[in-house]
Amino acid sequence: MSESTLDMVKRIVADVLGTSVSRITADSSPETLENWDSVRHLNIVMALEERFGVELEPEDIEGMRSVMQIVAIMSARTARS
Amino acid sequence: MTGALREEIESWIARGEADQAKAGLERLWQQDPSPSTAGFVVARFEALRGRVPLVRCRVAILRSFTVEPVVPLLRAAAFAGGIDLEVELGAFNSYTQEILAPESALYAFAPGAVILAVQTRDVAPALWSGFAGLAPADVEETVRSVSAQIGGLVEKLRERSAAAIVVHTLETPDEPALGALDAALPLGQNEAIRRINRHLVEVARAHRGVHVLDVDALMARRGRGAFRDERKWLTARMPYAAGELVHVAREWLRFLHPIAGRVAKVVACDLDNTLWGGVIGEDGLGGIQVGPEYKGAAYLELQRALLDLTKRGILLAISSKNNPAEALEAIDKHPGMLLRREHFAAVRINWTDKAENLRSIAEELNVGVDAIAFLDDNPVEREWVRSRLPAVPVIDLPDSPMGYARAVRGCPLFERLELTAEDRERGRHYAEQRMRAELREATGSLEDFYRSLEQEVSIDEVGRDLVARVAQLTQKTNQWNLTTRRYSEVEIEGLTRSGSTSVYALRVRDRFGDNGITGAAVVHHRGDRAEIDTLLLSCRVIGRTVETAFLSFLTDAARARGAKAISGWFLPTKKNAPAKDVYASHGFSREHEDGDATEWTFDLSRRIPWPEWIEKGPHAAAAEETKPA
């Protein structure tokens, strides 16, 4: 079975931050996870683009302030394309 | 899709099954070389450090743009290829200061490799965005000043650091400022940028350990339009698209593999459905496919790629489960075969398990198993070898034979940054070696065998011409190597210029041919004591008393420079047991111990006689004459 968008995003965030998926929740954000810094945020963006096969707009990237927001944006982007 | 494999890997790590976990991580990376998987692969390999074979390498990346997202991919791909890479990123766009300031973080990091990744739009904005406004004389002047600027930085870096240096060439624009006309101009935009690149190639040729990475070629291979991502450039100064980052990492690894010494000296090839289509035991000589027509053409292309590798000094071997008579008949007689029996340095056609055969090929060719790349279409055999011999690099062939040749040509294990004359002749050397072995079987006593070889040994102090080969020997020689100290060309060149150190190269000829430069020594002269820093022989010439000739020469040379004693360490490794007794058997006495390491010393009032069955080559004899009466 294919993973849900939430599961995919959680896994990507966990992979990039070098932590386990169990530590990531929908509410996780740069405020709750200390090594989610600006460099890793860019890495997360690149990993999302690669995995979902989309190119994100700068406005999308600015709006990605938590796992939940990422899921919302990725769902909207993949629904559009 | 890879979730189940990830769980398996976690449980192997939890149970301490490090080799299984390593094989699983390599498979995971092959299935999904994505930025996300990279994070997982790096974290798990870090957990396996010390329990799986990895070589370490420190690389500094100096850059004029954002490369941070490439780093996890680079480290994951390096781990999957057996390299534990420590990466230091220069601060954004501060490569000039990093190179020019001797106290910079760059030099403090002491890298083994430095990648200088700059782009045209950063170092030559006039040529990139202002080109249409430049008069021809301004273009000439800009080409000159940018060439001098980058060339000068590379030269300064070369002077200050012993690291291997990889310089990105400047990329040409997708759309030149003057459009289609650009190609017709004597000094159009693309031509101006190519001139700078040609200058970089000249700089690289003039300095040891400087290598050029052709960025335009990389983009062409991947497809220019898709390679760049203008959005990421404008928002994050990251010029490459997310899906292409792994290809930037792989391009860097083509240089980092040879720099780190993680290279294959031998390719062990399967036959059925690898070198030809079909199964010889079932389809017969007339049924297998290889030749210029489809489907045989894909296999012929693979054979051509393998034949090209032999010109880089890489040996071919066969590892096949077959009846030897049938398989050899196909190799000898099939009209479509490009590779014939004489191209293979070792042949294992039997029903023994392949891990066992690889071990025996390694023994026959005197290389470590980690220097044999395994090429087999069958994923089950590949997994078997991965789990049995975790040090063996396994090449992951794609499902379609049409991709086999490309997989071999793109494999970083076969990259060489420098080719010596020895490399091109290596295949022939091994053929001669087989004949020597046959002679040995045919002669009676060992002494008769030594005499029958008609050996001639020459030993020279190393001049500029032999620096590359001597550095290569220190990098590659594992078995008959007393201290296994690895030196770069830059370091060897530095030693040859030092007044208190001698670097020697040894050449062996015999009745079967010239073995080339197959031995090296580094000796420090410290007053009345000489210290052997490095002493090594290529495995091609061991077991025939060449080491006695070498020690005879080194002791005489040390005495001639006024030494009363000569000493040297034996530093044991997993591989150098063949050399462990050499000091004891030549009359050295044990002086110190430090853990497993032992230091040996020889009183120079005595002599080590030159073996009477070895002729002195011209230079070895010349050194003899300088000895005091």
Structure overview:
The complex is a heterodimer of chains A (81) and B (629). The two termini of chain A are 21 Å apart. Chain A has helices at 5-17, 38-52, 58-62, 67-80. In chain A, helix 1 (5-17) packs across helix 2 and helix 1 (5-17) packs across helix 4 (67-80). Chain A has four helices and no strands. Chain A has 81 residues and is mainly α. Chain B is globular and about 80 Å long. The termini of chain B are far apart. The relative contact order of chain B is 0.07. Chains A and B meet through helix 1 and helix 2 of A and helix 3 and helix 13 of B.
Question: Can you give me a brief rundown of this structure?
Answer:
With 81 residues, chain A is an all-alpha fold.
Structural class of chain A: mainly alpha
Alpha-carbon distance between the termini of chain B?
79 Å
Query: What is CATH's topology name of the largest domain in chain B?
Result: Rossmann fold
Number of helices, counting only DSSP H or I runs of 4 residues or more of chain B: 27
What is the overall pLDDT average of chain A?
90
Let me know the largest β-sheet of chain A.
Answer: none
What coarse outline of chain A follows from CA principal-axis ratios? globular
Q: What is the CATH third-level topology name of chain A?
A: Non-ribosomal Peptide Synthetase Peptidyl Carrier Protein, Chain A
Report Rg of chain A.
Answer: 12 Å
- Count the domains of chain B: 4
- The CA-CA distance between the termini of chain A, in Å, is 21 Å
Query: Could you name the ranges of chain A where pLDDT drops below 50 across 5 or more consecutive residues?
Result: none
The global form of chain B is globular
The number of distinct structural domains of chain A comes to: 1
How big a fraction of the residues of chain B is strand?
Answer: 15-25%
**Interface with most residues:** A-B, 23 and 25 residues
